[in-house]
Design goal:
There is one protein chain. By secondary structure, this protein is α/β, with parallel strands linked by helices. The chain folds into 2 domains: about 200 residues, Rossmann fold, CATH 3.40.50.720; about 100 residues, UDP-galactose 4-epimerase, domain 1. It is built from 10 helices and 13 strands. It has a 7-stranded parallel sheet, with helices on both faces. The protein starts with a strand and ends in an 8-residue tail after the last helix. The structure holds uridine-5'-diphosphate. Uridine-5'-diphosphate binds next to helix 6 and strand 8.
């Protein structure tokens, strides 16, 4: 298939581009490089350096006849979305509406959207399935849900086959492709960066949660597994309308468990300071992945913590200043 990947220079996007190429698909990338990295783009791939807020350039690119669009391009910092919500409503929502419109106009039959567990908010259930209540608690989650709704309405009306992949905690690295956000807010890169940069300190955000060791529980999923699910989504989903699918491991890991595995992988003990809770952090977020298996035939194969931490640590050691292209 000929596939357009928006945000193909970003973390999950770049790994997905690699997987799509390995599966024999023709890939073109659309990215404005506001957060993506030029060195994450394979040489020789058609690259459209443009913005989702520019409908004319979207129309020109989409006229190149794609069989599928995989849409990652978005700002993704929860805290920033609280501080500057219109940046998220403007770029992420308006940009996605432009993209879906251009894809429909060009007759693209398949669309895969990067959604998030943030659409669920703080559900009070052990494992979250796709029928759980949608109650996002911050602008980032609300904008992801708004895009899902727009896509669902458009797909229902036109017969487009659309999938919303709701990621839990993306992590790990894939060879030379790794996680490099500015600022870095995520747990695993923060732990590892504290060993790379002596000025970088990470802390545990709360150990008084109602969990066995008091720290928050999350569902950590290797970026390679996430990427594979996107390939399966464009190949397998042929149902008109929007199909939402969780991507996780169905296994919860606490912050302390992550730190323990990181200590083994790095070969040094961590003794982080515990500070107060970070606002908006639910105690536990773990996905049911039964639907992903049933619809996509997908199962995580690289998401054990040793593989995740080992791959991420190798990447940070090889890229001590990240991609170093800002
Ligand atoms: N966390 C932490 N210290 C950090 C970064 C994160 O204790 O420096 C905790 C955070 O409170 C949450 C978990 O690690 O319980 C995962 O946070 P992350 O930001 O990686 O992902 P989120 O689940 O918030 O999307």
């Amino acid at each position: 298939m000929k596939v357009l990947v928006t945000g193909g220079a970003g973390y999950i996007g770049s790994v997905t581009v690699r997987r799509l190429l390995e599966h024999g698909h023709d890939v073109e990338i659309f990215d404005d490089f506001s957060t993506g990295h030029r060195s994450a783009v394979p040489a020789g791939l058609p690259l459209h350096d443009s913005s989702l807020l520019d409908p004319e350039s979207l129309a020109i690119v989409l006229a190149r006849r794609f069989d599928a669009v995989v849409h990652f391009a978005a700002f993704s910092l929860v805290g920033e979305s609280v501080a500057n919500p219109l940046k998220y409503w403007g770029n992420n929502v308006a940009g996605s509406v432009n993209l879906v419109g251009a894809a429909l106009e060009a007759g693209v039959p398949r669309f895969v959207f990067s959604s998030s567990a943030a659409v669920y908010g703080e559900p009070d259930v052990e494992t979250i399935d796709e029928d759980a209540r949608l109650a996002p608690v911050n602008p980032y989650g609300r904008t992801k849900l708004a895009i899902e709704w727009a896509l669902a309405d458009a797909a229902r009306q036109t017969g487009m086959c659309a999938t919303a992949l709701r990621y839990f905690n993306a992590c790990g690295a894939d060879g030379a492709l790794g996680e490099d956000h500015a600022p870095e807010t995520h747990l695993i890169p923060r732990i590892l960066l504290s060993r790379i940069d002596p000025n970088f300190e990470f802390q545990i955000f709360g150990d008084d949660y109602p969990t066995p060791d008091g720290t928050c529980i999350r569902d950590y999923i290797h970026v390679r597994d996430l990427a594979e699910a996107h390939v399966k989504a464009i190949e397998a989903v042929d149902r008109p309308g929007l199909t939402p699918i969780n991507l996780g491991t169905a296994t919860g890991r606490s912050v302390r468990e992550i730190i323990d595995v990181a200590s083994r992988v790095v070969g040094e003990d961590f003794a982080p300071v515990v500070r107060g809770r970070r606002s908006g952090d639910p105690a536990r977020l773990v996905a049911s992945n039964a639907k992903a298996e049933a619809v996509l035939g997908w199962r995580p194969v690289a998401s054990d913590l040793e593989t995740i931490l080992g791959d991420a640590w190798r990447w940070h050691q090889e890229h001590p200043r990240g991609y170093d292209d800002r």
